[in-house]
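Researcher: Quick test of sequence recovery. Tokens follow.
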């Protein structure tokens, strides 16, 4: 017996149930939901999860997902007459350290940027909200009214119930997937353990099995870097102080807001006259998906709970003396290697994944997956949750072991925006690593590659430039060195050598290469061989998928230059839009090359000492490329500059990289050439007004808002991706604009996501920020409504709870005509 469905959703937890609801809302018919266990109340994490909805975090995307999910769950009618599906009591985090209290101030500022109501509370105000808390043990707290407690299994059931009212939905429990049937690279059917449904034909399938997802995906060679960790939860015996709730009326189950002690990774909630307490504060119990048995619940390990329980009793004195529980268990939750959900289509067409989500974000995760599947677009930017965001090393057992254990131990650690990954390190080494070590580099990891933030060898430059490098203190001084400022200034004065191993190269070749590249890119790609074009990839709706440089190497060959950190998903983007008639070949040539950047006023003088090529403006114009000899190697020299200075990107065969470095380094001695790190690279680009993809530009912004409309050639004869939407956007005019701002006090600071105010009203938020050493100003970028996007406009930002005046400035502040790059 075989049944056919348009989509099969695998997993009836809250992600899967939410997906069914969203498919029905999108108008899809013939929807099937299956689960290996019972429907709703089963062995999955949705059933055992305590149900806390945390509606605010430092992540913009996770906050968007959480707020959306809270609103959706609040709109549901109860599933059961004896229990509330949704309890809108709010959410409360408390700070037991001064550093956490400062972080809550930062979070409070971000709440305004994200449009989420939140209130900072004094210790006594926290006590009023949650009578459990001992105010003497805390510095304060933050209350988020949008937070809630939900009954996860009831939410799932209610969502599928409501989906059934919108579409034809079938749901089967005890139906485990045993195999996938693939034909011509596309999913066509599933085999299951259910004798009533041994084979299910389908047009598409969505895996929402969370901790079981990796094991399922392995059947098709899909690597999901996700593991399960046990987390402890107990429910106390009834407490006399809560006797008024002993009759267990459904509206009294969650009668007050509980709280999270994020410093110690513990939390609590009310269960009528009992209290539930959860803890991550114990030795990690990690389980790989293939080793997860039927249930996500394991026996309680009391030895892991003794110390945390003693601590929590000090924080909540009403719990003192309680040492017996009516319920206690170790429940497993999913942890991806970077702590973010995993969403996207696999290499098997029609087979999608939506996993790695906790209850808080589940409806938002499902929303994104279903939008993507039904329309090809999502409302929110997907780069942080994209299935194909992972480099190959990330899926190795060695890496997953090390980073997953670290992530568990640091689950609620305060993470500085510029804090390097602590471990695993030295996973990928740039070919220039030995030279960086010689220069005493302070390393950071970019896509696993060790690159210098700055070089301690350049400390000698501080004497020359110290009067131009303002001192920093507190949060602003963390993961920063004045040496980075000196490297910035030395590059502007003479020249810097940059390790660009973090670049990736996607080659498009074949008789249809020009037509395809012109379709994929917003700029006009029909330029002479040897020319380089700055362009955008746009979504169908006109959002900026990424900005990049493209070099035309031959009539039928182009190199697209992207970041190595996004290489996997960029390759998927290119291949998913490529013609299938054989006219185009897509090749990842990244691993055959590394790259250096040589930039600064003396770049031409230095490079001319190691090549016979004509480097003059006539012989090597700006925005052009040539194969030239440098020392013993032929390298592709590209005359562009993210630093805003004269110079070249040099793409070098991987087996000749050190020879090229050494030749340039020796030639640069008489010009005081330095090795410049990534921190200075960021401040150099910021002064020049170059956009940071993932910060200043994402799919949530269009080219005209971002000030990149000049790259969108609507007069191109051929159609291109996003053309129709861009034409409409241009005709209507953008509603907001990415603006350059400066802090009136140059010794101020910002890092990103700080709210921007006009007359007390939040009108935007910072997208990127740093100090501009050449212009002696602290520079910020942020999107502002048109009425505020005027040079000279006076606004404010909020930084750790304090307001600081800012002024809208010309964009860019440094070399606005680009004369230095074209020198």
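Model:
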């Amino acid at each position: 017996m075989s049944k056919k469905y348009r989509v099969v959703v695998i997993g009836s937890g809250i992600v899967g149930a939410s997906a069914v609801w969203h498919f029905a809302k999108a108008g899809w018919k013939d929807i099937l939901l299956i689960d290996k266990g019972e429907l709703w109340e089963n062995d999955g994490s949705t059933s055992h999860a305590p149900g806390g909805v945390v509606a605010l975090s430092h992540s913009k995307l996770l906050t968007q997902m959480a707020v959306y999910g809270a609103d959706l769950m609040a709109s549901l009618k109860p599933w059961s007459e004896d229990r509330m599906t949704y309890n809108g009591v709010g959410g409360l985090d408390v700070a037991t350290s001064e550093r956490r209290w400062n972080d809550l101030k930062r979070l409070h500022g971000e709440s305004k940027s994200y449009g989420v109501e939140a209130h900072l509370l004094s210790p006594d105000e926290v006590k009023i909200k949650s009578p459990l808390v001992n105010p003497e043990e805390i510095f304060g707290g933050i209350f988020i009214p949008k937070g809630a407690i939900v009954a996860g299994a009831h939410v799932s059931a209610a969502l599928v119930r409501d989906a059934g009212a919108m579409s034809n939905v079938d749901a089967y429990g005890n139906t485990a997937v045993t195999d996938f049937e693939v034909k011509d690279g596309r999913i066509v059917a599933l085999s299951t353990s259910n004798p009533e449904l041994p084979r299910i034909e389908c047009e598409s399938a969505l895996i929402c099995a969370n901790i079981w997802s990796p094991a399922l995906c392995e059947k098709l060679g899909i690597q999901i870097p996700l593991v399960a960790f046990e987390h402890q939860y107990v429910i106390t015996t009834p407490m006399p102080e809560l006797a008024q709730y002993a009759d267990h009326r459904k509206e009294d189950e969650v009668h007050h807001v509980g709280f999270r002690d994020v410093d110690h990774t513990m939390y609590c909630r009310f269960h009528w006259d009992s209290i539930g307490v959860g803890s991550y504060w114990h030795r990690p119990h990690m389980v790989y998906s293939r080793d997860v048995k039927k249930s996500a619940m394991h026996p309680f390990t009391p030895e892991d709970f003794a110390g945390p329980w003693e601590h929590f009793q000090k924080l909540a004195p009403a719990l003192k003396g309680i040492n017996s529980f009516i319920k206690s268990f170790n429940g497993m939750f999913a942890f991806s290697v970077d702590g973010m959900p995993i969403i996207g289509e696999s290499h098997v067409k029609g087979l999608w994944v939506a996993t790695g989500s906790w209850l808080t974000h589940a409806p938002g995760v499902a929303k994104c997956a279903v939008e993507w599947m039904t329309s090809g677009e999502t409302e929110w930017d997907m780069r942080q949750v994209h299935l194909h965001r992972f480099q190959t090393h990330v899926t190795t057992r060695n890496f997953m072991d090390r980073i997953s254990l670290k992530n568990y131990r640091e689950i609620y650690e305060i993470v500085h925006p510029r804090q390097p990954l602590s471990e695993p390190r030295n996973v990928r080494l740039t070919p220039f690593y030995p030279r960086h070590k010689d220069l005493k580099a302070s390393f950071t990891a970019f896509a696993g590659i060790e690159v210098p933030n700055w070089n301690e060898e350049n400390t000698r430059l501080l004497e020359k430039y110290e009067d131009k490098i303002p001192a920093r203190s507190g949060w602003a001084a963390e993961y920063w060195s004045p040496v980075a400022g000196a490297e910035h200034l030395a590059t502007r004065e003479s020249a810097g050598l940059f390790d660009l191993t973090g670049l990736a190269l996607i080659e498009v070749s074949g008789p249809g290469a020009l037509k395809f590249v012109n379709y994929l890119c917003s700029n006009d790609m029909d330029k002479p061989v040897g020319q380089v074009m700055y362009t955008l990839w746009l979504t169908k709706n006109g959002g900026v998928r990424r900005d990049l440089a493209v070099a035309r190497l031959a009539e039928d060959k182009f190199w697209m230059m992207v970041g190595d950190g996004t290489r996997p998903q960029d390759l998927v983007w290119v291949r998913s839009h490529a013609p299938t008639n054989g006219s185009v070949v897509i090749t990842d040539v990244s691993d055959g090359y590394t790259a250096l950047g040589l930039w600064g006023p003396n770049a031409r003088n230095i490079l001319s000492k190691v090549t016979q090529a004509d480097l003059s403006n006539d012989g090597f114009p700006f925005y052009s490329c040539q194969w030239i000899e440098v020392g013993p190697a032929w390298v592709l020299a590209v005359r562009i500059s993210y630093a805003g200075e004269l110079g070249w990107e040099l793409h070098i065969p991987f087996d000749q990289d050190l020879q090229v470095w050494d030749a340039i380094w020796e030639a640069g001695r008489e010009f005081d050439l330095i090795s410049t790190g990534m921190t200075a690279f960021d401040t150099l680009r910021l002064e020049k007004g170059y956009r940071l993809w993932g910060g200043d530009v994402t799919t949530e912004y269009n080219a005209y808002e971002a000030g990149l409309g000049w790259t969108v050639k609507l007069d191109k004869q051929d159609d291109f991706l996003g053309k129709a939407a861009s034409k409409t956007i241009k005709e209507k005019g953008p509603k907001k604009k990415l603006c350059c701002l400066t802090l009136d006090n140059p010794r101020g600071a910002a890092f990103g996501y700080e709210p921007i105010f006009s007359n007390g009203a939040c009108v935007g938020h910072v997208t990127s920020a740093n100090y501009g050493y050449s212009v002696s100003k602290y520079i910020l970028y942020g999107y502002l409504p048109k009425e505020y996007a005027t040079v000279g406009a006076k606004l404010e930002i909020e930084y750790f709870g304090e307001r600081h005046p800012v002024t809208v400035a010309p964009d860019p502040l440094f070399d606005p005509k680009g004369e230095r790059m074209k020198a």
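Residues 739 and 782 are 6 Å apart (CA to CA).
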